[in-house]
Amino acid sequence: LFVPLSGTFSLEVHNLPEAVIDELSCEGALIKEAFIAYSRSEGKLYKVIILSSDFHEQAVFLNERGNILNR
Asked: How far from 37 is each of 22, 27, 51, 61, CA to CA, in Å?
């Protein structure tokens, strides 16, 4: 589903696309860390470590349009 971690690079949270931030804001999540990878079929992909409203840490994978690719 996602590019292997060896092809994933750390990304400053403020550099995430607005669509990704908007989607996670709608979920009520706090962004802890972000990573970017590239896929030939999907383009830019983002792995975002979030804290849910109950402070559960979770990795969420999104494309640059803000569509969540895993749940």
From this structure: 20, 22, 21, 10
Nearest by Cα to 20 from 59, 65, 57: 65
Coil, strand or helix: which one is 4? coil
At residue 23, the pLDDT reads: 93
Task: Give all strands (DSSP E) within the chain, no chain letters.
Answer: 9-11, 30-39, 43-51, 57-63
Given strand 30-39, what is the order of strands in its sheet? 9-11, 30-39, 43-51, 57-63
CA dist list (Å): 18 to 1, 6, 7, 25, 28:
23, 25, 23, 10, 15
**Model confidence pLDDT, tens digit, residues 5-48:** 456 789 999 999 999 999 998 878 899 999 999 888 778 999 99
Paired with 20 in beta bridges are: none
